[in-house]
Specification:
Layout (H helix, E strand, L loop, with lengths): L26 H11 L3 E2 H8 L11 H13 L3 E6 L7 E6 L1 H33 L1
Antiparallel strand pairs: 1-3, 2-3
Helix pairs in contact: 1-4
């Protein structure tokens, strides 16, 4: 099933599930962006790149990243393949699909909106505190 942020695409009166209910969902757009910038990375490399985008100053658990990868792959947003390493075990590498790129675009729209809303929140707080 293809997941999409609705951007108002849900029917009137239907709940909007565009926005993640848990902060841990923010791992998803980070994984998508890393795969866009670094196609064909394996899990360890992916984890290294993800830490460059750690949200809220927190660390990202590898288990959470792999759960997101599996779900994204199940949903057709990511594909993976096994490759034989010159030394050691085979590694699974990951690629973003066209649908994954659309989902990344949708996430960016949502994050831009959050950026605006959080900026307004901080501005209102600062104004209240000054007055």
């Amino acid at each position: 099933m293809r997941r999409r942020f609705c951007r108002g695409r849900h029917g009137e009166g239907e709940p909007c599930h565009c926005r993640p209910q848990r902060l841990s969902r923010l791992i998803e757009p980070v994984v998508l962006l890393v795969l866009k910038r670094h196609p064909g990375v394996h899990g360890y490399e992916l984890m290294h790149h993800i830490h460059n985008y750690a949200m809220a100053g927190g660390s990202v658990e590898p288990g959470a990243v792999y759960r997101v990868l599996r779900q994204l792959e199940h949903d057709g947003m990511v594909r993976s393949q096994w490759v034989l390493a010159e030394a050691g075990a085979a590694r699974r590498i990951y690629f973003l699909t066209e649908e994954g790129e659309v989902l990344l675009d949708d996430w960016v729209d949502v994050l831009r909106q959050w950026h605006h809303e959080m900026g307004q929140f901080v501005q209102d707080y600062d104004t209240m505190k000054e007055g």
